[in-house]
Amino acid sequence: GMILNDCFDLQEDRRDRPQRPLPAGRIPLRNAWMLGWLLMLCGCLLAALVGQTQLLIALILSAAILAYDAWLKKYFIGTLVMGGCRYLNWLLGLSVVPLTASDWALPIPVFIYIFSLTSLSRIETDAGSSGPLTICISGVVASACSLTLLYVLGILQHGWALVPAAILLIPLLHSLVSNYRNMNTHTIQANVKL
């Protein structure tokens, strides 16, 4: 998905990120397309070897990845689709054992977090609006709350998992809130990396 994303974004990257491997010419575009499609096909084939449920999830995930990469990333719905891609990615891993209702809830914090991060990444090259930053801050808090709720409901069995999440949340929120005072493409890109 990431390779195909870079292939679809070649014109934009030539303009905004010329140092990346494809626009810089370090990797031929044809090779990147072939490798991206080959890896996606191999992923689906490997999922099929595990079972029908895994193949179904892999096919839906592949379709979501392609929809995001080729068309939807420019629109707000793309942020939801990217969150859905990460949700499905986790669900695919969880599906190696029979899925329970609780298993479907486990990736929800990941969905919320990735939706939030993708909202912020939409303004990496044009930090004109603070709306995506507000969405990101709210989403990071909502992701932490949903993780806590999963523990309270007994779906997340290990409370110690909340400790590293809290330790990582504090500097991330501090950095995001600081962007309000000094919002520019550099600080937005730094927060996306963080």
Topology, pairings included?
Blueprint: H1 2-8, H2 10-16, H3 21-24, H4 29-50, H5 52-70, H6 76-94, H7 101-105, H8 108-121, H9 131-152, H10 162-178, H11 185-193
What does this structure look like?
There is one protein chain. The protein is an all-alpha fold. It is 75% helix and 0% strand. Helix 1 packs antiparallel against helix 4, helix 4 runs antiparallel to helix 5 and helix 9 runs antiparallel to helix 10. The protein starts with a helix and ends with a helix.
In a few lines, what is going on in this structure?
The chain is mainly alpha-helical and 194 residues long. It has helices at residues 2-8, 10-16, 21-24, 29-50, 52-70, 76-94, 101-105, 108-121, 131-152, 162-178, 185-193.
